[in-house]
Amino acid sequence: MLILILITIVAGYFLGSIPVGYLVARARGVNILEHGSKNPGATNVMRVLGEKFGPAGKRLGYLVFALDAAKGAAATGWPVLATKLGLFCTLDAPHVETLALIGLASSLLGNGYSCFMGFKGGKGVSTGAGGFLVLMPVSIIIALLLWWVLFEITRYVSLASMIATASLSVTSLAMHLLWAEHGFWWIPSPVTVGISALAAVFVAWRHRSNISRLLNGTENKFARKSRGGAA
Q1: Which domain holds residue 65?
Q2: 98 in a domain, yes or no?
Q3: Which of 69, 101, 162, 224 has the fewest Cβ atoms within 10 angstroms?
Q4: Are 57 and 162 part of one and the same domain?
């Protein structure tokens, strides 16, 4: 088990450390670390490349989100998949869950403090979404819907991201209180609920500069599209 834990930590960290946003922007001749918020996350990529290349640039921002989410899903899901394929026949469900949570935590750490980026990086929202999609699919779908509603109302990506992440533990806890006795497969364990709360704290910490700008009224908003299609 110790060897598996070490493998999970190393694999999760290096998966999370892959600087997807930086690489995608660099492929279009843009050093994302010198533009916008200077963050290599999907939001800044979408904003910067959208301004430079229009709709094609914005689609690259969606690509970054998807690839960052895939990193989290891979780091979290490989122990589950390996068990289903019979590679870890001696591990029971709690041990598999432990490996999955370690993989998720490691990928979030790698995403936020990438060894390829001088231990700087993104804010963990996309990577966390991918990981929690494996662990708590119903809760993450609710969180994504909440993110969309909040974003449409406020146009603040940072605010929507922090509240949506915080909602994971709230909705999961509610599921436990209402339906735990039924044993539904999509209800996460109490340990996973606790980890989701810690993830919310981590995401809020990574957004601390955004929180300061929100309080000062200087946070960037995404402009609404006009009827003619222009931002």
Answers
A1: 1-124
A2: yes
A3: 224
A4: no
> Would you say 121 and 112 are in contact if contact means Cβ atoms under 8 Å apart?
yes
Among the three residues 104, 124, 144, which one is the final residue of a domain in this structure?
A: 124
Q: Let me know if residue 129 belongs to a domain.
A: no
- One domain, residues 116 and 162: no
The pLDDT value recorded for residue 186 is 74
Q: What is the pLDDT of residues 168-191, one digit of tens each?
A: 999 998 988 888 777 777 788 889
pTM of the model: 0.87
Report d(CA 151, CA 132) in Å as an integer. Answer: 20
pLDDT in tens, 193-221: 999 999 999 999 999 999 999 999 999 88
Distance CA 193, CA 163 (A): 16
% of the chain beyond a pLDDT of 90 = 74
- Number of domains, the chain: 2
User: How confident is the model over 115-146, as pLDDT tens digits?
Assistant: 999 999 999 999 999 999 999 999 999 999 99
